[in-house]
Amino acid sequence: MSPQYRRHGFIKDELAYRLRRALEDLGSPLRVATEQSVAIDAFNEPQPDIILTAEPKGDGPIPLMSVAMLVEVSASTLTFDLTDKTRIYARAGIMEYWVVDANRRVVHQLWSPEGDAYDHHRETALGQKIEIATIRDVDIETDAL
């Protein structure tokens, strides 16, 4: 496994915390999981940094059909996260996918999968509020990230 350094870890942990708080405040059945396997198919079980799932408990990987959103925090893998992983997640029907560029301090927010791409893409600078596109009434403050 590649090492994870503090910038990556801090952004991941703080964003996971803020997502969890926002979902709890909303009374959402979704839960936040971190660095767990997601069952895309028999040969593909990626471990995104953050997973929003309706099935956080149980044995084995998180079921694909329970996943509402995935987040990758990228300090050294930005190209891979925005190309190969985007294709994998879009093909799997993941409704929303975020890539946090830790170096440029920008969140690439992708939603509405179509084939192996996403129909919508928005960039938001860290420090600004981010609205989850596919879950109503969930805003995340990113000022401390």
Automatic annotation (TrEMBL):
<dbReference type="InterPro" id="IPR012296">
    <property type="entry name" value="Nuclease_put_TT1808"/>
</dbReference>
<dbReference type="InterPro" id="IPR011335">
    <property type="entry name" value="Restrct_endonuc-II-like"/>
</dbReference>
<feature type="domain" description="Putative restriction endonuclease">
    <location>
        <begin position="1"/>
        <end position="129"/>
    </location>
</feature>
<dbReference type="GO" id="GO:0006281">
    <property type="term" value="P:DNA repair"/>
</dbReference>
<dbReference type="Pfam" id="PF05685">
    <property type="entry name" value="Uma2"/>
</dbReference>
<protein>
    <recommendedName>
        <fullName>Putative restriction endonuclease domain-containing protein</fullName>
    </recommendedName>
</protein>
<dbReference type="InterPro" id="IPR008538">
    <property type="entry name" value="Uma2"/>
</dbReference>
